[in-house]
Design a protein that fits this description.
It is built from six helices and 16 strands. It is α+β, with helices and mostly antiparallel strands and about 290 residues long. The protein folds into three domains: about 90 residues, Pseudouridine synthase; about 130 residues, Pseudouridine synthase (2-Layer Sandwich); about 55 residues, Archaeosine Trna-guanine Transglycosylase, Chain: A, domain 4 (Roll). Strands 1, 2, 3, 4, 5, 8, 9, 10 and 11 form a nine-stranded mixed beta sheet that branches. Strands 12-14-15-16-13 form a five-stranded mixed beta sheet, covered by helices on one side. The protein has a two-stranded antiparallel ribbon with strand order 6-7. Helix 1 packs parallel to helix 5. The termini are close together.
C-alpha cells in the first residue's frame, strides 16, 4: 500500500502518535508525516505511506495555513494553553483595530525567537527536553516569513486569526510576542492547521474514518490522487517499455515534457513510478524510483 492520506489530527495526540495509529490501522511499517503539529493543535497532517515516504524531501519547506485564537492577559512557559502561567493574570479589554494594527507589524520577513518548548535543537537535543527538566533554554532568533496574518475578531481578551506562513514559523511565538508588545502577556489558546502545501482541510479524514474504510477494504479510496502530489512537477505517462527502463534506474526519452526540469512519471493513471530529472533535450534520468515497499 503506497500513497498519501491527509489526517485531521485530533487534539491530545502528537504527530508521531498519529503515525503510529496509521501504522496499526493499515498494517504498514513504512509511514511518516509531512510537518509536525503540536499535541494541542488540530487539523491537516499529511501522512505518507509505503514507498511514497520518499516524497517527504519535497515538503520540507512547505507553506502552511492556520486558524486560531490568542488569549491576552497572561503568558505561559509553553506559549500556549497547555503551559504554566509566567505572568500574573490581568484584566484586558481588547480594541480590535489596535490588535489588527499590531498584527500588521508581524507580517513579512521577521526575526522570531522559537518557544523554549519546541523541537529546535540545542547541541543536537530538542529544546523541549531541557525545558521539561526546568533547565535553561538558550535559543537563537531565526528569520521566518508571515505571508498573511488577519485578525478576524476580538472579544474582551481573545483574538481570532487566520495566518499563512512559511515553514519554521511558530504561531505560539507570535502570540507570546504580541502579548509582550501590549504589555499584558498572551498565549496561543487554540490552533487549527487548514493547509500544508497542496493539502487542505477539505482533503482530511479522521482516524476513525480511516479505520472504518480499512475494515471495508476501501482505505485507498481516501488517499490523495497521486497525480495531485508535488504539483510543481508536471505529470508524464510512460509506456510499458519506458516504465521498465525507469524502474531499473535507466534514463529514457520523455518528449511530451521536454522542457520541464523535473517530472512525475506514471505508468497508467495512478502508479507513480519515479521523479525524473532532465539531463538534456528530452532525455530524463529517474532521480527517485518508487519501487517496492520501504
Amino acid at each position: 500500500m503506497n500513497g498519501v492520506i491527509v489526517i485531521d489530527k485530533p487534539p491530545g495526540l502528537t504527530s508521531h502518535d498519529v503515525v503510529n495509529r496509521v501504522r496499526r490501522i493499515l498494517g504498514q511499517r513504512s509511514v511518516g508525516h509531512l510537518g509536525t503539529l503540536d499535541p494541542s493543535a488540530t487539523g491537516v497532517l499529511p501522512i505518507v505511506v509505503g514507498n511514497l515516504t520518499r516524497l517527504a524531501q519535497f515538503y520540507v519547506h512547505s507553506e502552511k495555513t492556520y486558524e486560531g485564537a490568542i488569549r491576552f492577559g497572561f503568558a505561559t512557559d509553553t506559549y500556549d494553553a497547555e503551559g504554566e502561567p509566567t505572568t500574573p493574570p490581568r484584566d484586558v479589554n481588547l480594541n480590535c483595530d489596535a490588535v489588527r494594527a499590531l498584527a500588521a507589524q508581524f507580517q513579512g520577513a521577521i526575526e522570531q525567537m522559537p518557544p523554549p518548548f519546541s523541537a529546535k535543537k540545542i547541541a543536537g537535543v530538542p529544546a523541549y527536553k531541557f525545558a521539561r527538566k526546568h533547565k535553561e533554554v538558550t535559543l537563537q532568533p531565526v528569520q521566518v516569513e508571515i505571508k498573511e496574518f488577519e485578525i478576524l475578531d476580538t472579544t474582551e481578551d481573545h483574538a481570532t486569526f487566520r495566518a499563512r506562513v512559511a515553514s519554521g514559523t511558530y504561531m505560539r511565538s507570535v502570540a507570546h510576542d504580541m502579548g509582550q508588545q501590549l504589555g499584558c502577556g498572551a498565549h496561543l489558546a487554540a490552533l487549527r492547521r487548514t493547509a500544508v502545501a497542496e493539502f487542505t482541510i477539505d482533503d482530511a479524514h479522521s482516524l476513525e474514518a480511516l479505520a472504518a474504510a480499512m475494515q471495508q477494504g476501501t482505505a485507498e479510496s481516501l488517499f490523495v490522487h497521486p497525480r495531485k502530489l508535488v504539483p510543481r512537477f508536471p505529470c508524464v505517462t510512460a509506456n510499458e517499455e519506458s516504465a521498465a527502463l525507469i524502474r531499473s534506474g535507466r534514463a529514457v526519452n520523455l518528449p511530451e515534457m521536454s522542457r520541464a526540469p523535473q517530472v512525475k512519471v506514471f505508468y497508467g493513471q495512478r502508479d507513480l513510478i519515479a521523479i525524473a530529472t532532465r539531463i538534456a533535450g528530452t532525455l530524463f534520468h529517474p532521480a527517485i524510483v518508487f519501487t517496492g515497499e520501504n
